UniProtKB/TrEMBL annotation:
GO terms for cellular component: cytoplasm. Its EC number is 2.3.2.27. Pfam families: Sina_RING (PF21362), Sina_TRAF (PF03145), Sina_ZnF (PF21361). It comes from Zizania palustris (Northern wild rice). InterPro entries: 7-in-absentia-prot_TRAF-dom (IPR018121), E3_ubiquitin-ligase_SINA (IPR052088), Sina-like_RING (IPR049548), Znf_RING (IPR001841), Znf_SIAH (IPR013010). This is RING-type E3 ubiquitin transferase. The lineage of its organism: Eukaryota, Viridiplantae, Streptophyta, Embryophyta, Tracheophyta.
Amino acid sequence: MDVDSVECLSLPDAASAAAAMDADDVSLARHAHGALLAAAAAARAACSKGGAAVPAVASGVHELLECPVCTNSMYPPIHQCPNGHTLCSTCKARVHNRCPTCRQELGDIRCLALEKVAESLELPCKYFSLGCPEIFPYYSKIKHEAQCMFRPYNCPYAGSECAVVGDIPYLVSHLRDDHKVDMHSGCTFNHRYVKSNPREVENATWMLTVFHCFGQYFCLHFEAFQLGMAPVYMAFLRFMGDDNEARNYSYSLEVGANGRKMVWEGTPRSVRDSHRKVRDSHDGLIIQRNMALFFSGGDRKELKLRITGRIWKEQQTPDGTCTPNLCS
């Protein structure tokens, strides 16, 4: 159905316009609404049969409800210009009340017909092609998609604002080939971090190492940043998967020298949580600069930290207690 065939009315004019509609207009409007509902039903039927792709009719319905500016799905209030071009409420403010298609002033016209159509629809999750089998009422779909387990992951590399997204195997290849990240197998690690001028906290390089164990991938981060007025170093682990899987694992980090040591134990955070979110929650081993220099020994003018650690999987015994399962 063409977008221009849906006539949307401003609230003050809706009653008078409805009274002026003749029988043919009513029949045409009902026919268009019915066609949209039939398309949605076809989408549900195809999904229930395990179709490999969303049928063209459902795709057409989705395009009808797609904002032409941001390309996101539109939710009430859906606005339109006098010529019938629609856009979402967020973009209405962004385009300074001018239709981006015909440049007419938008005013306060609501597309009530399109909003009613949306209420009647049930559509597949937008991650249908990635394996999600779920179908939702239109207005519930966006909430599911924000948490859908099939949604792609963001690149976990923290040294730059990388916009790459994908599944875990793709991101592992991306980290190795594009970011040149060190890859290691095994659940124990022993890393040495050296920095010639430890006072340059602002320019410290983010370091990332990827470990493969228990058939999963883990990202070990080490970086320097300002915590209030104090420069600190921090190490933490992220799990390349969802949070419910991350809870099955634990890890420890240890740093020390000169007869002293600091130990951290915790659960790795999912890469669904951004690197900055984990860092700002202080969920990891935090080392004050003075302590880091003490561990480095010598004249304290060069950072030389050795961080060791291990990853283990929590395994439940028949009596309900959890014991660590270490990889070989």
